[in-house]
Design a protein that fits this description.
The protein has a single domain, classed as 3-Layer(aba) Sandwich (Rossmann fold). The chain contains 9 helices and 9 strands. The structure holds S-adenosylmethionine. S-adenosylmethionine binds next to helix 3. Keywords: Methyltransferase, Transferase.
Length: 257
């Protein structure tokens, strides 16, 4: 899977910038409301990335709780370790969590399982590390949910088709409910978190996503540098005619007692 998006220094920095936008800050607030963490709880943030959510959760569980931030990317772990919060940052993957069995109350994986080759194994790992009655929250995007206005819909479709190669399963939310149930969880009805950008604001998720997409799709799906740059320039030039939306799907599940 070396063909997927690599979370190297440059990509990690771009992801950190996108995840600092008001859109993603609001997404994290919704995630934390659904989790309803209590002081003293132990949490694992799987694929914690730049560590924003882990840091916010550390604040909520307080000095008697613990937040483990696990990520296989050294660049991401470096960013997470730099957050001013008492989080424990560890190397590890969703398929082999570096935690003992029945050691946490809550497991979170936001925008991570869609990058995982063996989702069944990852859900089994979440079950293993959760204490009886523990909660899991999994959030992923269905990349078919993108609605992105441009002046050349055929070119936008080519760019987005190439972008789908950046991860293992661009449509994971469609199968996550049954997969969680098969792993032994009680699954609540999923929620949707839409991201919607209209108008000329540039401090948005979609504006921040453009450089990540352009860097990834160059040379893929027959797209050359000029065509990719023309697409990026086109969506940027729309200014107050910008229209972008995309859906995140959130699953909250409980491990049996
Ligand atoms: C899009 S970022 C999301 C970061 C973070 N969860 C958030 O929502 O802010 C995806 C993260 O998943 C990590 N990742 C990729 N493959 C993984 C795997 N097999 N197990 C755990 N994390 C993985 C990447 O290194 C990256 O930090």
């Amino acid at each position: 899977m070396t063909d997927m998006l690599q979370f190297d220094t440059e990509t990690a920095r771009r992801v950190e910038a996108v995840y600092s936008t008001p859109d993603v800050i609001a997404q994290r607030a919704e995630v934390r409301a659904l989790l309803a963490l209590r002081p003293g709880e132990d949490v694992v943030d799987i694929g914690a990335g730049p560590g924003f959510l882990a840091a916010e959760m550390a604040d909520e569980v307080g000095p008697h709780g613990r937040v483990h931030a696990v990520d296989p990317s050294a660049s991401m772990r470096g960013l997470a370790a730099g957050r001013e919060a008492p989080i424990e940052v560890d190397d590890g993957s969703a398929e082999a969590l570096p935690l003992p069995s029945a050691s946490v109350d809550v497991a979170v994986a936001t925008q991570v399982l869609e990058y995982v080759v063996d989702v069944r194994q990852a859900l089994g790992e979440i079950r293993r590390v959760l204490r009886p009655g523990g909660r899991a929250l999994v959030l992923d995007t269905d990349w078919d949910s993108i609605v992105w206005h441009s002046t050349d819909d055929a070119r936008t479709a080519r760019v987005l088709a190439a972008w789908e190669e950046h991860l293992v399963d661009p449509h994971l939310p469609r199968t996550l409910g049954p997969a969680l149930a098969a792993a032994g969880f009680e699954v609540a009805p999923p929620r949707v978190i839409p991201l919607l950008n209209t108008g000329d604001d540039r401090d948005t998720y979609s504006a921040g996503l453009v450089p990540i997409i352009t860097a990834f799709v160059r040379g893929r799906g027959g797209l050359d540098d000029d065509e990719v740059q023309a697409w990026a320039d086109d969506v940027a030039a729309l200014d107050d005619a910008t229209f972008f939306s995309l859906n995140r799907y959130v699953f909250v599940a409980t491990s049996g007692r």
